[in-house]
Amino acid sequence: MTSELKGKTIVVIGATGQVAQPLATKLSEHNTVIGAARFRDASRRSSLEEAGVRCVEIDLATGDVGNLPSEPDLVLNFAVAKSNDWTNDLDAGVGGTLAIMEQVQGAGALLHCSSTAVYKPMGHHVFAEDAPLGDNHGVWEFLRTYSTAKIAAEAAARYGSTRFNLPTTIARLSVPYGDGGGWPAVHLEMLRNGSAIPVHTRSPSTYHPLHDEDIFAVVPGLLGAAVVGGTTVNWGGKDAVSIEEWCSYLGELTGLEVAFAPTDQTIDSVQVDLTKLHSLVGESQVGWKDGFRRMVEARRPELLKG
């Protein structure tokens, strides 16, 4: 659990994000947490500060990270650039990652959060960490830079780990979700609005949803697995679950009608091999159905049947 991390100085990059904000808040219970972001949303900054997180402004696209400490105990990099501008997003992903690593090179370990979006679309292939990489998200015009920028940032993290002698873990995250939202929560809102859910024509569209509670629980283990040169590992819930399955279950929980819209213009299935993850940190503990029910209870309790 995150309670294993006590009395540490921990830098959380991208602290206003869906995954990083609750993680920074949780870690601040027993640690000194420095949350770094651009802080375009003042309410998110206020929420973090109220939880005891010290907020500092950075800009990864320009490499402006001088407000970060040089020798924190641990660094969690959850930053992501999704402006859809190639120059900005590659500069932030590559240059920004290296700027962070140079600034905090005295840290004990760094966790670099990547994505299973780095894998080349291959239908129902189960991807191990050495599988081919490719442009998974380019089919979504609004995320055309995402996969490529993530691949490039991984390369930067590996180089930076060696260049600055900084033990690093690169964790390719599948589908995070929880009380704060996530892709399944977007689908819940689509069902509520009567919208059909896009799924790939090569059904089922399978991923590994991972609840916030399990994200919190394994961060210490992922940091413990960090080595100079980088440890790369798939990161997801133990259950391989399709969009079709989880939306149908959301329909059962709420009584909302569920309709799907098969298309080639959506991302393909990305099922991953979690053998390495489980050997390092064990299996996730929150079953996906329990986690989804909890998500609905937190976000849309009025929709739950009974």
Question: How would you characterize the overall build of this protein?
Answer:
The structure is a single chain. α7 crosses α9 (288-299). Helix content is 35%, strand content 20%. With 306 residues, the protein is α/β, with parallel strands linked by helices. The protein has helices spanning 20-27, 42-50, 86-103, 146-163, 183-192, 212-224, 243-254, 275-281, 288-299; strands spanning 9-13, 32-37, 54-57, 74-77, 109-115, 126-127, 168-173, 175-178, 181-182, 197-200, 206-207, 209-211, 231-235, 241-242, 260-263, 271-272.
Helix content: 25-40%
Query: What Rg do the Cα atoms give?
Result: 19 Å
Q: What is the SS-derived class? A: alpha/beta
Strand order of the largest sheet: 3-2-1-4-5-7-13
Mean pLDDT: 95
Strand content: 15-25%
Characterize the largest beta sheet: strand count, sense, and whether it forms a barrel. Answer: 7 strands, parallel
Spell the H/E element sequence. EHEHEEHEEHEEEHEEEHEEHEEHH
Total helices: the number is 9
What is the number of E strands?
16
The stretches of 5 or more residues where confidence is low (pLDDT under 50) are none
Any idea what the shape is?
A: globular
From the N-terminal CA to the C-terminal CA, the straight-line distance is 33 Å
Keywords:
about 35% helix, about 20% strand, three-stranded mixed beta sheet, about 300 residues, alpha/beta
Task: Describe the secondary structure blueprint for this structure.
Blueprint: E1 9-13, H1 20-27, E2 32-37, H2 42-50, E3 54-57, E4 74-77, H3 86-103, E5 109-115, E6 126-127, H4 146-163, E7 168-173, E8 175-178, E9 181-182, H5 183-192, E10 197-200, E11 206-207, E12 209-211, H6 212-224, E13 231-235, E14 241-242, H7 243-254, E15 260-263, E16 271-272, H8 275-281, H9 288-299
Parallel strand pairs: 1-2, 1-4, 2-3, 4-5, 5-7, 6-16, 7-13, 8-12, 10-15
Antiparallel strand pairs: 8-9, 11-14
Helix pairs in contact: 3-4, 5-7, 7-9
